[in-house]
Structure of Dolichol-phosphate mannosyltransferase:
Amino acid sequence: MNVNSANCLLPVPSGSFVVPDLTTVLSTTEERPLRFSLIIPTYKEAKNLAQLVEQVSRLLDSQLAGNYELIVVDDNSPDDTWKVAQELTNYPQLKVMRRIEERGLSTAVIRGWQVARGEVLGVIDADLQHPPELLLQLWSQIQGGADLAVASRHVEGGGVNDWSIIRRFLSRGAQTIGLILLPGVIGRVSDPMSGYFMVRRNCLVDRPLNPLGYKILIEVLGRGKIPEIGEVGYVFQERQVGESKVTWKQYVEYLQHLLRLRLSLGSIGRFIRFSIVGFSGVFVDIAIFYLLRNKLGLGLTLSAALSAEVAMFNNFLWNDVWTFGDISQHQPGLRQWFERFLKFNGICLAGLILNVLLVNLLFNVFGINEYVSKLIAIAAVTVWNFWINLKLSWRVTDVRQ
Ligand code: GDD
Ligand code: MN
Protein backbone atom coordinates (compact mmCIF):
# COMPACT_ATOMS: atom_id res chain seq x y z
CA MET A 1 0.00 0.00 0.00
CA ASN A 2 1.57 3.31 -1.04
CA VAL A 3 0.68 5.69 1.79
CA ASN A 4 1.96 8.64 -0.23
CA SER A 5 -1.39 9.08 -1.99
CA ALA A 6 -3.41 11.59 0.02
CA ASN A 7 -6.51 9.43 0.07
CA CYS A 8 -5.01 6.62 2.11
CA LEU A 9 -5.60 6.59 5.86
CA LEU A 10 -2.44 6.18 7.92
CA PRO A 11 -2.32 3.15 10.24
CA VAL A 12 -3.07 4.22 13.83
CA PRO A 13 -0.24 3.27 16.20
CA SER A 14 -1.21 1.54 19.44
CA GLY A 15 0.47 0.84 22.77
CA SER A 16 2.68 3.26 24.67
CA PHE A 17 3.22 6.83 23.59
CA VAL A 18 6.86 6.63 22.58
CA VAL A 19 8.16 8.56 19.57
CA PRO A 20 10.43 6.18 17.63
CA ASP A 21 13.63 7.29 15.92
CA LEU A 22 13.49 7.93 12.21
CA THR A 23 15.18 4.71 11.12
CA THR A 24 12.52 2.70 12.89
CA VAL A 25 9.73 4.66 11.18
CA LEU A 26 11.38 4.42 7.76
CA SER A 27 11.95 0.68 8.15
CA THR A 28 8.14 0.22 8.09
CA THR A 29 7.60 2.17 4.87
CA GLU A 30 9.51 2.71 1.64
CA GLU A 31 9.17 6.45 2.10
CA ARG A 32 12.07 8.85 2.54
CA PRO A 33 12.84 11.02 5.58
CA LEU A 34 11.55 14.60 5.69
CA ARG A 35 12.69 17.74 7.44
CA PHE A 36 9.39 18.65 9.03
CA SER A 37 6.14 16.95 10.07
CA LEU A 38 3.24 19.11 11.24
CA ILE A 39 0.39 17.45 13.14
CA ILE A 40 -3.11 18.96 12.90
CA PRO A 41 -5.31 17.45 15.62
CA THR A 42 -8.98 17.74 14.68
CA TYR A 43 -12.33 17.20 16.27
CA LYS A 44 -15.27 18.63 14.37
CA GLU A 45 -13.21 20.96 12.15
CA ALA A 46 -14.68 20.01 8.77
CA LYS A 47 -15.39 23.65 7.90
CA ASN A 48 -11.95 24.94 8.90
CA LEU A 49 -9.63 22.33 7.45
CA ALA A 50 -9.47 23.25 3.76
CA GLN A 51 -8.56 26.86 4.52
CA LEU A 52 -5.92 25.86 7.06
CA VAL A 53 -4.31 23.26 4.77
CA GLU A 54 -4.24 25.76 1.91
CA GLN A 55 -2.59 28.49 4.01
CA VAL A 56 -0.08 26.18 5.72
CA SER A 57 0.91 24.47 2.45
CA ARG A 58 1.46 27.76 0.68
CA LEU A 59 3.72 28.94 3.51
CA LEU A 60 5.73 25.75 3.90
CA ASP A 61 6.09 25.33 0.13
CA SER A 62 7.98 28.62 0.18
CA GLN A 63 10.78 27.14 2.31
CA LEU A 64 10.37 23.38 2.59
CA ALA A 65 8.80 22.32 -0.72
CA GLY A 66 8.77 18.51 -0.98
CA ASN A 67 10.39 18.19 2.41
CA TYR A 68 7.49 18.33 4.82
CA GLU A 69 4.23 16.54 5.56
CA LEU A 70 0.95 17.54 7.16
CA ILE A 71 -0.75 14.85 9.23
CA VAL A 72 -4.39 15.38 10.19
CA VAL A 73 -5.25 13.24 13.23
CA ASP A 74 -9.02 13.12 13.56
CA ASP A 75 -10.87 11.35 16.36
CA ASN A 76 -13.69 10.12 14.17
CA SER A 77 -15.43 13.52 14.19
CA PRO A 78 -19.21 13.34 13.77
CA ASP A 79 -18.86 15.98 11.02
CA ASP A 80 -16.54 13.63 9.07
CA THR A 81 -13.54 15.93 9.28
CA TRP A 82 -11.33 12.91 8.39
CA LYS A 83 -13.27 12.42 5.15
CA VAL A 84 -12.94 16.11 4.27
CA ALA A 85 -9.20 15.75 4.81
CA GLN A 86 -9.07 12.71 2.53
CA GLU A 87 -10.84 14.66 -0.19
CA LEU A 88 -8.19 17.39 -0.15
CA THR A 89 -6.37 15.54 -2.91
CA ASN A 90 -4.45 18.57 -4.27
CA TYR A 91 -1.95 18.27 -1.43
CA PRO A 92 0.32 15.25 -1.85
CA GLN A 93 2.07 16.13 1.43
CA LEU A 94 -1.23 15.72 3.32
CA LYS A 95 -1.79 12.52 5.30
CA VAL A 96 -4.82 11.53 7.34
CA MET A 97 -5.18 9.40 10.46
CA ARG A 98 -8.64 8.49 11.72
CA ARG A 99 -8.71 7.32 15.33
CA ILE A 100 -11.74 5.32 16.43
CA GLU A 101 -10.86 3.97 19.85
CA GLU A 102 -8.77 6.79 21.30
CA ARG A 103 -9.82 10.39 21.98
CA GLY A 104 -8.02 13.52 23.15
CA LEU A 105 -5.86 16.34 21.77
CA SER A 106 -2.50 15.39 23.31
CA THR A 107 -2.64 11.70 22.47
CA ALA A 108 -3.75 12.57 18.92
CA VAL A 109 -0.63 14.69 18.47
CA ILE A 110 1.69 11.95 19.73
CA ARG A 111 0.06 9.29 17.54
CA GLY A 112 0.78 11.60 14.62
CA TRP A 113 4.41 12.05 15.72
CA GLN A 114 4.80 8.29 16.01
CA VAL A 115 4.21 7.78 12.27
CA ALA A 116 5.81 11.07 11.17
CA ARG A 117 8.93 11.05 8.96
CA GLY A 118 10.20 14.49 9.97
CA GLU A 119 13.39 15.37 11.87
CA VAL A 120 11.37 18.21 13.39
CA LEU A 121 7.86 17.62 14.77
CA GLY A 122 5.23 20.34 15.08
CA VAL A 123 1.61 20.88 16.08
CA ILE A 124 -0.94 23.54 15.12
CA ASP A 125 -4.67 23.81 15.86
CA ALA A 126 -7.03 23.36 12.93
CA ASP A 127 -9.30 26.31 13.68
CA LEU A 128 -6.97 29.13 12.51
CA GLN A 129 -6.66 30.53 16.02
CA HIS A 130 -2.94 29.77 15.64
CA PRO A 131 -1.80 32.04 12.74
CA PRO A 132 -0.09 29.78 10.15
CA GLU A 133 2.37 32.50 9.10
CA LEU A 134 4.14 32.05 12.45
CA LEU A 135 5.33 28.61 11.24
CA LEU A 136 8.19 30.19 9.32
CA GLN A 137 9.38 32.13 12.36
CA LEU A 138 9.20 29.01 14.50
CA TRP A 139 11.12 27.14 11.78
CA SER A 140 13.86 29.76 11.73
CA GLN A 141 14.17 29.45 15.52
CA ILE A 142 14.84 25.74 14.99
CA GLN A 143 17.29 26.50 12.16
CA GLY A 144 18.93 28.96 14.53
CA GLY A 145 19.69 26.15 16.99
CA ALA A 146 16.62 25.92 19.22
CA ASP A 147 15.51 22.37 20.08
CA LEU A 148 12.00 23.59 20.86
CA ALA A 149 10.32 26.67 19.31
CA VAL A 150 7.12 27.79 21.03
CA ALA A 151 4.46 30.25 19.85
CA SER A 152 3.75 32.37 22.92
CA ARG A 153 0.95 34.75 23.87
CA HIS A 154 3.08 36.10 26.72
CA VAL A 155 6.14 37.55 25.01
CA GLU A 156 6.55 40.72 22.98
CA GLY A 157 4.01 40.79 20.15
CA GLY A 158 1.89 38.18 21.96
CA GLY A 159 -1.66 38.29 23.33
CA VAL A 160 -5.18 36.94 23.07
CA ASN A 161 -7.89 38.48 20.97
CA ASP A 162 -11.25 37.87 22.53
CA TRP A 163 -10.83 35.96 25.74
CA SER A 164 -13.23 36.76 28.57
CA ILE A 165 -11.81 37.93 31.91
CA ILE A 166 -12.79 34.50 33.29
CA ARG A 167 -10.79 32.58 30.67
CA ARG A 168 -7.77 34.90 31.09
CA PHE A 169 -7.96 34.42 34.84
CA LEU A 170 -8.32 30.64 34.52
CA SER A 171 -5.41 30.42 32.08
CA ARG A 172 -3.09 32.52 34.27
CA GLY A 173 -4.32 30.72 37.38
CA ALA A 174 -3.55 27.37 35.78
CA GLN A 175 -0.09 28.60 34.86
CA THR A 176 0.56 29.72 38.44
CA ILE A 177 -0.46 26.35 39.87
CA GLY A 178 1.88 24.75 37.35
CA LEU A 179 4.73 27.03 38.44
CA ILE A 180 4.21 26.00 42.05
CA LEU A 181 4.08 22.27 41.35
CA LEU A 182 6.59 22.04 38.49
CA PRO A 183 8.74 25.19 38.50
CA GLY A 184 11.57 23.44 36.61
CA VAL A 185 9.19 22.51 33.80
CA ILE A 186 6.49 25.18 33.59
CA GLY A 187 8.97 27.96 34.33
CA ARG A 188 11.05 27.17 31.23
CA VAL A 189 8.65 28.94 28.86
CA SER A 190 6.44 32.01 29.04
CA ASP A 191 3.36 30.22 27.63
CA PRO A 192 3.36 26.59 28.84
CA MET A 193 -0.31 26.30 27.81
CA SER A 194 0.55 26.98 24.18
CA GLY A 195 -0.71 24.38 21.74
CA TYR A 196 1.47 25.70 18.90
CA PHE A 197 5.15 24.67 18.72
CA MET A 198 7.77 22.52 17.00
CA VAL A 199 10.45 20.30 18.56
CA ARG A 200 13.44 18.29 17.31
CA ARG A 201 12.50 14.63 17.10
CA ASN A 202 15.68 13.54 18.90
CA CYS A 203 14.55 15.39 22.01
CA LEU A 204 11.65 12.94 22.34
CA VAL A 205 12.93 9.67 20.86
CA ASP A 206 12.45 6.66 23.15
CA ARG A 207 11.24 8.76 26.08
CA PRO A 208 7.87 7.39 27.24
CA LEU A 209 5.27 10.15 27.11
CA ASN A 210 2.15 9.91 29.21
CA PRO A 211 -0.10 12.78 28.17
CA LEU A 212 -3.48 13.74 29.52
CA GLY A 213 -5.99 16.24 28.11
CA TYR A 214 -4.83 19.27 26.17
CA LYS A 215 -1.39 20.33 27.42
CA ILE A 216 0.96 18.44 25.13
CA LEU A 217 3.69 21.10 25.53
CA ILE A 218 3.96 20.46 29.26
CA GLU A 219 4.46 16.75 28.56
CA VAL A 220 7.19 17.55 26.02
CA LEU A 221 8.92 19.94 28.45
CA GLY A 222 8.59 17.46 31.34
CA ARG A 223 9.78 14.27 29.66
CA GLY A 224 11.78 15.54 26.66
CA LYS A 225 15.50 16.30 26.64
CA ILE A 226 15.42 19.96 25.56
CA PRO A 227 18.56 22.06 26.02
CA GLU A 228 17.61 25.14 23.94
CA ILE A 229 14.18 26.84 23.73
CA GLY A 230 13.12 29.67 21.40
CA GLU A 231 9.85 31.66 21.61
CA VAL A 232 7.91 33.74 19.09
CA GLY A 233 5.09 36.08 20.11
CA TYR A 234 1.67 35.72 18.50
CA VAL A 235 -1.89 36.88 19.06
CA PHE A 236 -4.32 34.04 19.67
CA GLN A 237 -7.01 34.73 17.08
CA GLU A 238 -10.75 34.67 17.48
CA ARG A 239 -12.32 31.42 16.32
CA GLN A 240 -14.44 32.14 13.19
CA VAL A 241 -16.09 28.73 12.67
CA GLY A 242 -17.11 26.10 15.25
CA GLU A 243 -16.41 26.29 18.95
CA SER A 244 -13.70 25.41 21.40
CA LYS A 245 -13.86 21.93 22.86
CA VAL A 246 -12.43 23.14 26.16
CA THR A 247 -14.73 22.33 29.10
CA TRP A 248 -14.11 22.15 32.90
CA LYS A 249 -12.95 18.57 32.16
CA GLN A 250 -9.80 19.94 30.53
CA TYR A 251 -9.01 21.93 33.68
CA VAL A 252 -9.37 18.83 35.86
CA GLU A 253 -7.22 16.85 33.42
CA TYR A 254 -4.62 19.64 33.57
CA LEU A 255 -4.35 19.31 37.37
CA GLN A 256 -4.16 15.52 37.09
CA HIS A 257 -1.48 15.92 34.45
CA LEU A 258 0.57 18.23 36.70
CA LEU A 259 0.34 15.77 39.60
CA ARG A 260 1.22 12.85 37.37
CA LEU A 261 4.30 14.68 36.12
CA ARG A 262 5.17 15.83 39.64
CA LEU A 263 5.06 12.23 40.84
CA SER A 264 7.13 10.91 37.99
CA LEU A 265 9.80 13.55 37.49
CA GLY A 266 13.15 13.93 39.21
CA SER A 267 14.17 12.63 42.62
CA ILE A 268 11.33 14.35 44.49
CA GLY A 269 8.76 12.49 42.46
CA ARG A 270 10.69 9.26 42.80
CA PHE A 271 11.05 9.81 46.56
CA ILE A 272 7.30 10.37 46.90
CA ARG A 273 6.68 7.06 45.09
CA PHE A 274 9.33 5.33 47.24
CA SER A 275 7.61 6.62 50.40
CA ILE A 276 4.17 5.48 49.20
CA VAL A 277 5.59 2.00 48.56
CA GLY A 278 7.31 2.07 51.96
CA PHE A 279 3.98 2.94 53.53
CA SER A 280 2.29 -0.01 51.85
CA GLY A 281 5.06 -2.17 53.31
CA VAL A 282 4.01 -1.24 56.85
CA PHE A 283 0.55 -2.70 56.23
CA VAL A 284 1.98 -5.89 54.71
CA ASP A 285 4.37 -6.22 57.66
CA ILE A 286 1.58 -5.87 60.24
CA ALA A 287 -0.81 -8.20 58.38
CA ILE A 288 1.76 -10.99 57.95
CA PHE A 289 2.97 -10.53 61.56
CA TYR A 290 -0.64 -10.95 62.74
CA LEU A 291 -1.16 -14.10 60.62
CA LEU A 292 2.11 -15.71 61.78
CA ARG A 293 1.52 -14.87 65.44
CA ASN A 294 -2.20 -15.51 65.74
CA LYS A 295 -2.98 -18.05 62.98
CA LEU A 296 0.24 -20.07 62.95
CA GLY A 297 1.29 -19.31 66.58
CA LEU A 298 4.95 -18.67 65.63
CA GLY A 299 7.36 -17.04 68.13
CA LEU A 300 7.69 -13.21 68.39
CA THR A 301 11.17 -12.79 66.87
CA LEU A 302 10.59 -15.31 64.05
CA SER A 303 7.22 -13.70 63.17
CA ALA A 304 8.74 -10.21 63.26
CA ALA A 305 11.69 -11.25 61.07
CA LEU A 306 9.54 -13.15 58.54
CA SER A 307 6.91 -10.42 58.27
CA ALA A 308 9.63 -7.79 57.82
CA GLU A 309 11.13 -9.90 55.00
CA VAL A 310 7.74 -10.31 53.27
CA ALA A 311 7.22 -6.54 53.56
CA MET A 312 10.66 -5.95 52.08
CA PHE A 313 9.81 -8.24 49.17
CA ASN A 314 6.55 -6.33 48.65
CA ASN A 315 8.44 -3.03 48.65
CA PHE A 316 11.01 -4.37 46.22
CA LEU A 317 8.38 -5.54 43.74
CA TRP A 318 6.56 -2.18 43.70
CA ASN A 319 9.75 -0.14 43.61
CA ASP A 320 11.11 -2.21 40.73
CA VAL A 321 8.03 -1.70 38.54
CA TRP A 322 6.87 1.74 39.73
CA THR A 323 9.39 3.87 41.60
CA PHE A 324 12.38 2.87 39.48
CA GLY A 325 10.44 1.33 36.56
CA ASP A 326 12.04 3.68 34.00
CA ILE A 327 15.48 2.38 35.06
CA SER A 328 14.75 -1.31 35.65
CA GLN A 329 13.14 -1.63 32.21
CA HIS A 330 16.63 -1.07 30.82
CA GLN A 331 18.07 -3.85 33.01
CA PRO A 332 16.09 -6.85 31.75
CA GLY A 333 16.46 -10.53 32.70
CA LEU A 334 16.20 -12.63 35.87
CA ARG A 335 19.89 -12.26 36.83
CA GLN A 336 19.77 -8.46 36.95
CA TRP A 337 16.38 -8.61 38.69
CA PHE A 338 17.78 -10.89 41.40
CA GLU A 339 20.87 -8.71 41.76
CA ARG A 340 18.67 -5.70 42.36
CA PHE A 341 16.61 -7.67 44.91
CA LEU A 342 19.68 -8.79 46.86
CA LYS A 343 21.08 -5.25 46.95
CA PHE A 344 17.71 -3.85 48.02
CA ASN A 345 17.45 -6.47 50.75
CA GLY A 346 20.97 -5.78 52.00
CA ILE A 347 20.48 -2.03 52.08
CA CYS A 348 17.10 -2.28 53.86
CA LEU A 349 18.56 -4.70 56.41
CA ALA A 350 21.32 -2.18 57.08
CA GLY A 351 18.53 0.36 57.36
CA LEU A 352 16.83 -1.80 59.97
CA ILE A 353 20.00 -1.81 62.08
CA LEU A 354 20.41 1.93 61.58
CA ASN A 355 16.79 2.32 62.73
CA VAL A 356 17.41 0.46 66.01
CA LEU A 357 20.68 2.37 66.64
CA LEU A 358 19.02 5.73 65.99
CA VAL A 359 16.06 5.00 68.32
CA ASN A 360 18.47 4.07 71.09
CA LEU A 361 20.66 7.16 70.47
CA LEU A 362 17.73 9.60 70.45
CA PHE A 363 15.96 7.98 73.44
CA ASN A 364 18.87 7.03 75.68
CA VAL A 365 21.39 9.81 74.87
CA PHE A 366 19.20 12.79 73.94
CA GLY A 367 16.21 11.74 76.13
CA ILE A 368 13.71 12.27 73.30
CA ASN A 369 10.30 10.60 73.69
CA GLU A 370 10.45 6.99 72.40
CA TYR A 371 7.69 7.42 69.82
CA VAL A 372 9.19 10.65 68.50
CA SER A 373 12.55 8.86 68.35
CA LYS A 374 10.90 6.02 66.39
CA LEU A 375 9.32 8.46 63.89
CA ILE A 376 12.61 10.32 63.38
CA ALA A 377 14.35 6.99 62.84
CA ILE A 378 11.76 5.85 60.29
CA ALA A 379 12.09 9.14 58.35
CA ALA A 380 15.89 9.05 58.40
CA VAL A 381 16.04 5.41 57.33
CA THR A 382 13.52 6.02 54.53
CA VAL A 383 15.85 8.69 53.09
CA TRP A 384 18.84 6.38 53.59
CA ASN A 385 17.06 3.43 51.92
CA PHE A 386 15.94 5.65 49.03
CA TRP A 387 19.27 7.25 48.31
CA ILE A 388 21.46 4.20 48.67
CA ASN A 389 19.04 2.07 46.60
CA LEU A 390 18.92 4.76 43.88
CA LYS A 391 22.72 4.79 43.80
CA LEU A 392 23.28 1.02 44.10
CA SER A 393 20.27 -1.20 43.41
CA TRP A 394 18.78 0.79 40.52
CA ARG A 395 22.08 2.30 39.41
CA VAL A 396 21.58 3.89 35.93
CA THR A 397 23.78 1.72 33.69
CA ASP A 398 23.34 2.01 29.97
CA VAL A 399 20.08 3.96 29.64
CA ARG A 400 20.29 6.02 26.43
CA GLN A 401 19.65 9.58 27.60
N1 GDD B 1 -7.90 14.67 17.53
C1 GDD B 1 -8.45 15.47 18.42
N2 GDD B 1 -9.11 14.90 19.50
N3 GDD B 1 -8.37 16.83 18.25
C2 GDD B 1 -8.97 17.61 19.18
C3 GDD B 1 -9.66 17.10 20.30
C4 GDD B 1 -9.72 15.66 20.46
O1 GDD B 1 -10.27 15.11 21.39
N4 GDD B 1 -10.14 18.15 21.05
C5 GDD B 1 -9.77 19.27 20.38
N5 GDD B 1 -9.08 18.95 19.26
C6 GDD B 1 -8.49 19.86 18.29
C7 GDD B 1 -9.47 20.89 17.77
O2 GDD B 1 -10.18 20.40 16.71
C8 GDD B 1 -8.52 22.02 17.41
O3 GDD B 1 -7.94 21.79 16.15
C9 GDD B 1 -7.43 21.91 18.48
O4 GDD B 1 -7.48 20.58 18.96
C10 GDD B 1 -7.65 22.89 19.66
O5 GDD B 1 -8.91 22.69 20.20
P1 GDD B 1 -9.82 23.91 20.71
O6 GDD B 1 -10.97 23.31 21.38
O7 GDD B 1 -10.04 24.88 19.63
O8 GDD B 1 -8.87 24.54 21.85
P2 GDD B 1 -8.81 26.09 22.33
O9 GDD B 1 -8.76 26.99 21.15
O10 GDD B 1 -9.83 26.32 23.31
O11 GDD B 1 -7.37 26.06 23.05
C11 GDD B 1 -6.24 25.92 22.21
O12 GDD B 1 -5.36 26.98 22.35
C12 GDD B 1 -4.87 27.16 23.62
C13 GDD B 1 -3.91 28.31 23.58
O13 GDD B 1 -2.79 28.01 22.75
C14 GDD B 1 -5.51 24.67 22.55
O14 GDD B 1 -4.39 24.49 21.69
C15 GDD B 1 -5.00 24.75 23.94
O15 GDD B 1 -4.18 23.64 24.22
C16 GDD B 1 -4.12 25.95 24.10
O16 GDD B 1 -3.80 26.13 25.43
MN1 MN C 1 -9.24 26.78 19.25
